[in-house]
Please model this.
Amino acid sequence: MADFLDVLARDAKETINEGYYEVSTQIPTPSVSLKKAILESKRIPIITEIKAASPSLGTIRKNFNPEEVAGAMEKGGAVGISVLTEPKHFKGSLFSLIKVRKAVKLPILMKDIIIGSTQLETASKIGANAVLLIEALFERKYCEYDVHEMIAQAQTKNLEVLLETHNEDEFQSAINSNADLIGINNRDLRTLKVDLGVTKRILEKNDAHGKVVVSESGVKTPADLHFLRECGAQAFLIGSAIMMAGNIEKRVKEFAFAL
Model:
């Protein structure tokens, strides 16, 4: 039975075939590591996310300037910035990532429904330092290569990999990969439901074996952040709660310095 993850995967293939990722732009990419930024952070490691919309919330922020938002996030204390580039469901833009790359020196994560090498090539061209890969897409055979080959291809292009999981089996598989970072998405991409307990349940039963774990989705307050830290997550990807704030710099500080 098809669920929303199947929809995302099918639309990703369509987007590739439409030529969306065929960009001629090639911009200099600073050699900065998202993993290193997390490990060396003197504050709570927050990866802030720039996104205009989401399937669950609809439009999140209208007519914003990606450079200004990214600058506010950097000033607020983010260790890295995730930029949504998926156009159909998140109103993302490759050009937003290019603008953000020119505006900040932080590591940038290209967040998309990545299923093929074309997307990795584009990420490396437009200034990304890392990419998101989703374990479930490999298990459902949507990707051009298996997870190990895709990770190797990304790393060959100087892209770190955040490999996203949602359950214990996916997490165990991810731990045995060469991914630089392991994500636990508290949002079930099949149903779009959010449960912060996903991170808790996975980490209380599974050893991360030294991998850096990033808890993704559902963080609305500093209290949520403290809960996830106690569960064992080391970094946190926060999107909507920051993008909906009136003062983005102040909102990022509330999370990054919520010690």
User: Anything to note?
Assistant: The chain is about 40% helix and 15% strand. The chain has one domain: 4-19+39-256. The mean pLDDT is 95.
